[in-house]
Amino acid sequence: MSAIRGGRASATKLVVGVDTGGTFTDIVVRDGRKAITLKVPSTPDDPARAVLDGLAELLEGRRADLMTYGTTVATNAVLERKGARTALITTEGFEDIVEISRQARPALYALEPVKTPPLVPASLRIGFDERMLYDGKPQRRPTRRGLARLRRALKAKRVSSVAVCLLHAHPNGRHEREIARALSVLDIPVTLSHRLSPTAGEFERTSTAVANAYVGPLIDGHIERLARASGARTLRVMQSTGGAIGAQTARREP
């Protein structure tokens, strides 16, 4: 642990920065002109534990006004395939879009190319009978019978998260919202592609929604615990873009 002096006093009384990775967790506490740093081993089984133990040592019972948190928990979950059991609901006939992708090959002349399997296996991809036209006009609306069948299918598959990505949902997400309302009784998180990535390009929108649903339950619980146990008045979470978002947004759209 080391103390560093210098710089201009912050308008916020007590500011904390945390960066946690798979090996070490780094914490910086700035109180006026004084900054104190601490490096502790990470706790991959419970990433919040290392953060909370380090904060307890540095803050000594004080409450942070602002904590900014950066973590690789979501990235590691994707790389290690340790995310939630996720189902993908898409327009009937487009169930394999995450498998087909853009047909781009990183090694063009490889005789035996190896393709990374999608986060959602074929057994958890469900085609739904509906159709939205390219301009956002409904051609075939969801039916009550179809929605009831969908609920039964998801119950049988015992999933803990759902991604919904329907064809041409970006100009009109009405059908996705109808599905979300029908699934609300299941009490599982549902990611809607048109809210997360309202752009053309079915593969990109689908893969984004799937990734969010895959890590969502893990990050939701992690951030909720960190926000509650840290006692920080404001918690921000770093994004890969270099910006930061609020804790509630991070829990909903990691």
TrEMBL record:
This is Hydantoinase/oxoprolinase N-terminal domain-containing protein. It comes from marine metagenome. Signal peptide: none annotated. One of its GO terms (biological process) is glutathione metabolic process. Residues 16-183 form the Hydantoinase/oxoprolinase N-terminal domain. GO terms for cellular component: cytosol. GO terms for molecular function: 5-oxoprolinase (ATP-hydrolyzing) activity.
